[in-house]
Amino acid sequence: MASPIITTVVPTTGPTSGGDAVRLTGTGFGPRVAVEIGGRCQVVALRREADGTSVLDVRTPAHADAVVDVLLQNLDQADQPVANENTRLTSAYRFLRPRLAREADLTRLVRTLLRELKRQVIANVSLATSVDYDDGLSVGVALASLPALVVTGPTVRENRIYGTNVPVVDAVVTPTGPELRRRRPAFTADLEFRLTGGSERTVELLTLMAAVATFLNRNRWIEMARDPEDSGAGMARWDLDMVGEFRTALDGPDDVRAFTCGFVVRGFDVDEGLPIDFTKTVVSPQLDTEALPTGGGN
Question: Would you state the pLDDT for residue 59?
């Protein structure tokens, strides 16, 4: 049998945690193979197309952040290497430490909220991880100076309006022909926040309440750049709604008057969804392949 040749590796980057779905195409792949991408890979599926092209699906091992070679070795029936039937693509795959994209997006979203509250309501706005209340709505956060606003949250709750449990199917044109690939849908959530306002004067507190109410009524969505590193990616927008009513406590400890209210940012994707399988869907001959997109995604 001729020595194997790898013609494509898709994708060429993946997470250092491993488990990435990588597809190798080429010729000369034996019925039993071993693949190394920074370490021994799990072979998921191997098939031969009518034109003689071999298609091999593997899962990567965990590996440190690095650029590595892709090695393929044909094996005999005893899973031993066949002499002179191997190939190597130098620097063909890169392990990347996963960028916590959605966590970073959540951080940027909170910063955007704080920035807009500072700009539109009051400069003295801070973020707290938690606020404790008793039945009298006493504020459990030390406010360094008054008047002030404190944002707490978010509490993450699944959004069943924007979210979906139906797998996403992407039409993808590959070197071996058109395919349909399934992805697990992203986890779409509502982010619930709470605002606490404090002042030593009742009139000042009521004025701050009115400013917050105006802010929530005027800003029906929160908007920010999809990707801060790519100005061409456009803007993303999420619904912003008030939750419940304002509650006040005018007889709090240390002569501090306070109010609380809640708001929610709806339809925030916590992750981007994950591949479900490698299965190549049989495409009808009548399918207009020219109309298929050149890459996955919606």
Answer: 93
3 state SS of 194: strand
- Asked if residue 257 is part of any domain, the answer here is yes
The answer, yes or no, to whether the previous bond of 175 is cis (omega within 30 of 0) is: no
**Sequence-distant (≥ 6) Cβ neighbours of residue 205 within 8 angstroms:** 147, 197, 198, 199, 248, 250, 257, 258, 259
Residue 86 lies in a domain: yes
Amino acid at 20: D
Q: In terms of domains, do 74 and 141 share one?
A: no
CATH number reported for the structural domain that contains residue 50 in this entry? 2.60.40.10
Predicted pLDDT at 146:
84
CB atoms within 10 A of CB 19: 13
* Closest residue by Cα to residue 268 from 148, 144, 146, 163: 163
CA distance 287 to 298: 19
Q: What pairing do the DSSP bridges indicate for beta strands 33-37 and 42-48?
A: unpaired
Q: Tens digit of pLDDT for each residue in 89-98?
A: 999 999 987 6
Same domain, 152 and 241: yes
Tokens of 294: 């050149």
pTM as predicted = 0.53
